[in-house]
What we know:
Blueprint: H1 5-32, H2 37-41, H3 56-64, H4 67-98, H5 104-113, H6 119-133, H7 140-143, H8 150-161, H9 165-173, H10 178-189, H11 191-206, H12 210-215, H13 224-229, H14 240-271
Helix pairs in contact: 3-14, 4-8, 4-11, 8-11, 9-10, 11-14
Amino acid sequence: MRQPRSLRIFSAIVLLAVGFFAFFPFYIMFKSSFESSAEILGHPFTLLPENGFKWDNYVTIFSQYPILKWLTNSFFVSVAVIAGNLVFSTCAAYALARLEFRGRNLLFLAVVSTLILPIQVLVVPLYLVVNQIGWTNNLIALIAPNLVSPFAIFLLRQAFISIPKELDQAAVIDGCSRLGVLVRIIVPNALPSLATVVVIKFMWTWGDFMWPSLVLTSSHLKTLPVGIATFAVSPSLTLWDLVITASVIGSVPILILFFLLQNYFVRGLMQGAVKG
């Protein structure tokens, strides 16, 4: 049924307004990356840089700070965490969705229950474990605890349940093993949910500050968020021009990944909502 023209116009206006308010902070951040700290904190507010678009902040960051190393560390950790989740969380979700065993629902409830725990509750015991193993000041301390995600297990399990079991049975008749069913049937039909896991885990890992700041002490191991914190020279002095510029640089990979996978991302969030 075709919507009335007035309703379509109203919907367009609302969407434009929401888009403007969502985009405007990003524009201000981008604009501020071309200004000095004095201009950023000065008055009155301007929509364009007072002295034009100057690249001094970007030159300073790339020439005087190891931001490429920070980006490399963040990228390495993020890719490793995503790879781990695509393997381990997928296998765990498949077991909870397809395998019949005693205590399956109770185990799934336990996994989901961990989602309500704030990360601050886990920091101290997790740090003690990492310290005992000898992983402090090592990037593996950022990777190993995040190789499996309760959120990823929950999302993928719901997506797997929505896939008809008849496809599994047909594959088994054709000679597929459990692993073959997972790789050839389940995974191809759950690509949107897998893409959603990739986007969300990349965002969480790329932007994580608290845990890396606790376990990393060497400057050459810093991730981007921890590196940005070095621009806070003292409690009373923060180099806001460099903070904002580094934030702009750090947001580029997230935006690229989201735009590449945005169609899968939306479908992935909806995939498990039909059944299960």
